[in-house]
Amino acid sequence: MSELSTVAELSMRDCFVDTTTALLAEKPRTALVLADISASLFASAAERHPDRVLNVGIREQLMVGVAGGLALTGLRPIVHSYAPFLVERAYEQIKLDLDHQAASAVLVGIGGSFDRAESGRTHFSPADVALFDTLGDWTVHVPGHPGEVSGLLRATVAADTSAYLRLSILQNDRAYAGAGDLVVVRDAGPGAALLVAVGPMLDAALAAVADLPVTVAYTHRPRPFDVAGLRALAGTEVILVEPYLAGTSARVVSAALADRPHRLLTLGVGREELRRYGSAEDHLRWHGLDPAGLRRALTGFLTPAAVAG
Amino acid sequence: MSSLATITTQVAEAAAPLDGRHPVTPLDGRHPVAPLLERVRAGRDFGPNVYSTLDVLWVLYDRILRVTPATVDEPDRDRFLLSKGHAVAGYYAVLAAKGFIPPDWLDDQGGPGSLLGDHPDRTLVPGVEIGSGSLGHGLGLAVGSALGLRAQGLLDPRVYVLLGDAELDEGSNHEAIAYAGAVGLSNLTAVVVDNSSATYGWPGGVATRFTVNGWTAATVDGHDQDALHAALTGHHGHRPHVVVAVVNNGEQA
């Protein structure tokens, strides 16, 4: 826990840079592939490991293709850019140059879903986790605090399977240790509705439930989703609060609870293009992901519907 | 450039006893690849693209690549990446001729129980370095492979990747060409089979796309095996190398 508490001043991106720099020094199989984004932050690492810190310029297709080739020779590539360029622009390279080759990599995206709100749609990435759901067995981590980043990055790099780390400037007040199984943060007792908050959505969710009879569980690992934990905690009402496209995890939760009558509310980023700038906090509010918006949705969901007629 | 020489050689081969040697070209029925190719073909019509790559593939596997069926997993093997994954018929026939796959596999190519698809899958076929089929992926993977070998101090093995001139339409190739040239990726050789099949062509020639980015280049007759051999071993040690293998119009790359 000491590591979790000492990095509170650093951003998730800072923690990623520090840990990757350390991994490059500690593990000779580690390689880093960049497409200019964050290259200046890795300048010293590139000086020390010129053969394993590879900046290909603004070439995201090549960035992922190179990662595939590195993995085929036995290296363990970490690939990094803004989430939309890493995941959406290079989607076919992820599908073919990694998965189809049976090669694996750790992809680290920043900016999700709308950290750079003033930059507009081109820099938004609400669909990234949904895209990984179209592929095979990707582990997806959505840390909710900078203190979670280092441990997750070290674990995924050591695991030798493919993983996506989705970093953001949005964060909770505190970090939660663990591999990503559901952690009960607020227990409302037997029969209460279960709210699962993913990554940086936790604090807003806790504020939203306030005096409502809702148990709140947290995870920073939506894939693979903690199905056993969900089944242990879920009653008949389940609420998902995710910082990417609303409903992304609906399929997983529905499958996990297929043998039980249940109601599911999925909250997240909407599909409509707002064409607005402002701040990430503004976008949270516009998508109903601030405490007030979440509470409105929760109250509507939990209030017994008026019987028509 | 030496098509006349090729023809002369073929005539001489046809006229003279073989003395235990193979005919020069896999297109000759007495060449060990020819009957294997017929097994893949199984009475079907092959497009000209199958024949356009045969000489290149044979020269690579017969005279250049330091890889055998026993060394397909050795870290210091040469790599051959078939980027234009539709050129599989000759590829499979050459792999069978060199013992990487049993010739029996050729008989039901593309069938429901076959491991040999119309595009190759590296997880299914011994000796196949990449799965390909969607154009524009092999060169990026080759750049990564060359970088990975270099980062591990494996300075002897070389990475060869085969593309077509129409495949160069895909922009991903140009990301790789520019970067490999800029960083002097000297353990990489690209082979572009050029039969002028790109819809808008490459005015000024295919090789210029590479040389302007710092590659060395050789453009040769794609059916002249000695010229191909010279070009495929003509790298200099400081820069990536491209061999443009020109074949007849009408053979689709």
Automatic annotation (TrEMBL), chain A:
Limits of the Transketolase-like pyrimidine-binding domain: 10-172
SUPFAM superfamilies associated with the record: Thiamin diphosphate-binding fold (THDP-binding), TK C-terminal domain-like
Cross-referenced InterPro entries: PDH/Transketolase, THDP-binding, Transketo_C/PFOR_II, Transketolase-like_Pyr-bd
Superkingdom per UniProt: Bacteria
Entries under Pfam families matching the protein: Transket_pyr
PANTHER family found in the cross-reference section: PYRUVATE DEHYDROGENASE E1 COMPONENT
UniProt protein name: Transketolase
Organism per entry: Micromonospora gifhornensis
TrEMBL record, chain B:
Pfam families: Transketolase_N
Keyword field: Thiamine pyrophosphate
Cofactor: thiamine diphosphate
Domain Transketolase N-terminal, first and last residues per copy: 53-240
Protein's UniProt keywords contain Acetylation: no
Family from the record: Belongs to the transketolase family.
Classification via InterPro entries: THDP-binding, Transketolase_N
Protein origin, superkingdom: Bacteria
Protein name: Transketolase
PANTHER family: TRANSKETOLASE N-TERMINAL SECTION-RELATED
Keyword Transcription: no
Organism of derivation: Micromonospora gifhornensis
